[in-house]
Amino acid sequence: MAGLVMACAVYRTAPAQDWTRFGWDAGRSSAPTTPTGITAANVASLRRQQVAIDGTVDASAIYLHGARVQGRTVDVFFVTTTYGKTLAIDAADGAILWKYTPPGYDTWVGSYRITTATPVADPDRAFVYAASPDGQIHKLAVADGRAAWSTAITDLPRREKIASPLNYFRGRVIATTGGYIGDASPYQGHVAILDAANGKLLHVWNSLCSDRPGILDPASCSESGSAIWGRAGAVIDSTTGNIFVATGNGLWDGRAHWGDAVLELDADATRLLGNYTPTNTDALDARDADLGSTSPVLLGGGLIAQGGKDGSIRLLDWGLMRGTEPHRGGERQVVPSGAARFTAPAVLRTRAATWLFAADNGGTAAWTLRDGELRPLWQNGHAGTSPVVAGGLLFVYDPEGGGGGLRVYDPATGREVAKLECGDGGGHWNSPIVVDGRIALPEGNSNDHSTSGILDIWRLR
After folding, report:
1. Can you list the alpha helix ranges (DSSP code H) found in 257-382?
2. For 26, which of 64, 160, 236, 415 could close a Cys bridge (C-beta 3.0–4.6 Å)?
C-alpha cells in the first residue's frame, strides 16, 4: 500500500503530453506515467463542457497537444462515431475543426452496421488512423482530415465488424475483427497488419482456419465465430512487438481453430507463439460465455490476466503457455470478478508493486499482485466501464443511474474523491482519457443507432 501512495505523490505539475491510443500505450495499461495536472485537490473544481457531435462515440477519444491543424497550433481531441465519421475537436473550446465522412456513409447510416473502434495517432503526429463500418481503415491528415489511404481488412463488412480500438507499433497499424450482435454467420476473428506509410495489407492471421493466411471469404471457412472484440483489442508487448489477443465463442481444436482462447502472435501476425484455453472451453462456447469478451492484460513478469463473460479473471503464467502445442487449463489462479466482464482493466506498475483495477456491471475493484497471485485490495458496488489510473487518481465512468457520472477514486483505498456529473446520454463502452489538465469522455450507446451524441470535456481552466 505504501508503494502506491509514494507513486501517487510524484504527480505535481503537468507538462504538455499526448494520448495517442486507447489505453495510453501499446500494452493498453491505461496508466500514464506522466503528470496530468489534475489532483485530488482540484478535480472537483473542473468545469464541464458538453460538445454536441453528429454521431455517437461508443469508444474513447485520443489527444494531441500542440498539433498543426488548418495552419494553427491547437490541442485536439479526435473521436470516431459509430457510423465512421472521424472528428477533430478543439480541446480548448470544443469547436469542430474538421470532419471526415467515409465514402458510402449514406448506405449504412442508421443501420446495424457500426464500429466502436478508437482511432490511433501516428508517432509523427501528422496522421491519425480510424475505422469505418465498411471494414476500412483510413489514414487521415491531422491538418485537415483528408484521407491519405483507405484499406479494407475484410471481404464481408456486413458480417465482420471492427469493434476494438486500433493499435500502432513500429510503422504498422494493427486491427482486429469480430461479428455483430446475434453472431450471424459467417465471420471470423482475425488480426490485420497494415503498413502505416502506404496502407498495404501486410499480413492477416485468422483465429479460425488459421492454417490459411490472408483475408478469407468468411463462407469459405468451415467454422464461424471466434471474434476478437475485447475493449483493448490487440495488446502489444512493447519489448518484442508480439501481439496478444483473446477470442470469443467458436470452435477450439488446438490446431487450426482457436475459439475462446488467449493467443500470442509474432509482431508480423504470421506465427502463433503461445496459446491458452480453459478446460471448459466447450461449455463456454455452448453458453455464450466468451473468454474474449475482454482482452489479455499484461501484468509484467510473464503474467497475464484474462477476464471473461463467466465472471472470472484467470491469472496465467505465460511461460507455461508458449509454443504451438495446445495448452488447455493450467491457470495459476482463478479470481471471481463479480459479473461478466466487457471492459479493459488498468494496470499500474511501480518499483514497489503492481496493481490491477477493473470495473464491470457488478462494481469496481482493485487487486495487488503479491507472491505471484492477485490479492483483493478493495471493491465497491458502483458499475463502470474501462478505468484509467492517472496522476495518482482512478477514473471510472459509471453509466448507470440518472445519466451516470465519472467517479474519481483514491486508487490505494477506493475512497471516492469526487463524482463528475455527466449528461443524460447514457453510456455503454465509453471510457475517459485524462491528459494535459483535461478529461474527455463520450456519451451514448452504439446500440441506440443514433446519429447524434455528446463529448464531455472537463478543464481546469
Report:
1. 281-286
2. 236
